[in-house]
Design brief:
Bound molecules: calcium ion
Number of helices: 4
Number of strands: 5
Shape: globular
Number of domains: 2
Structural class: alpha+beta
Helix content: 25-40%
Strand content: 15-25%
Oligomer: single chain
Largest sheet: 3 strands, antiparallel
Distance between the termini: 21 Å
Strand order of the largest sheet: 3-4-5
């Protein structure tokens, strides 16, 4: 979602909106281009230039492109042993795909959201 203060996203059809945190500046977003093959989006801001940010599927913790029960083990690994998670999944962004409560990190506060997303 384009907004006056960065980028926002929803994982439940618009019921809740979360601030997309990355290294993006707080600036009005005027355009977004998705480059699926390169797993990134290019974001044009007003006054702060163009930025790129990784694309991650919410809850897809094992990098197979889907959210399903196979992601549970990877989610638990990301919570319990972040270093081992990064070793096994070096191309993933658990702070994005596993961040269910919009605070910009994967932690125990994301468990309920992950379970809710799995059941949706
Ligand atoms: Ca998956
Ligand atoms: Ca979180």
């Amino acid at each position: 979602m384009r907004a006056e203060n960065g980028l926002w996203y929803t994982i439940n059809g618009g019921k809740n909106w979360y601030h997309y945190r990355s290294d993006l500046p707080y600036a009005p977003v005027v355009d977004i281009r998705l480059e699926i093959q390169r797993r990134r989006m290019v974001i044009a801001t007003q006054g702060r230039g163009a930025w790129q940010a990784p694309i991650a599927i919410p809850g897809d913790m094992n990098d197979d492109g889907n959210l399903d029960f196979a992601d549970i083990n990877a989610f638990v690994l990301g919570l319990s042993d972040p270093e081992e998670y990064r070793r096994q999944y070096p191309n993933l962004y658990p702070e994005i795909s596993g961040d269910m409560n919009g605070d910009g990190q994967l932690d125990f506060g994301d468990i309920n959201g992950f379970v809710e997303l799995l059941g949706a």
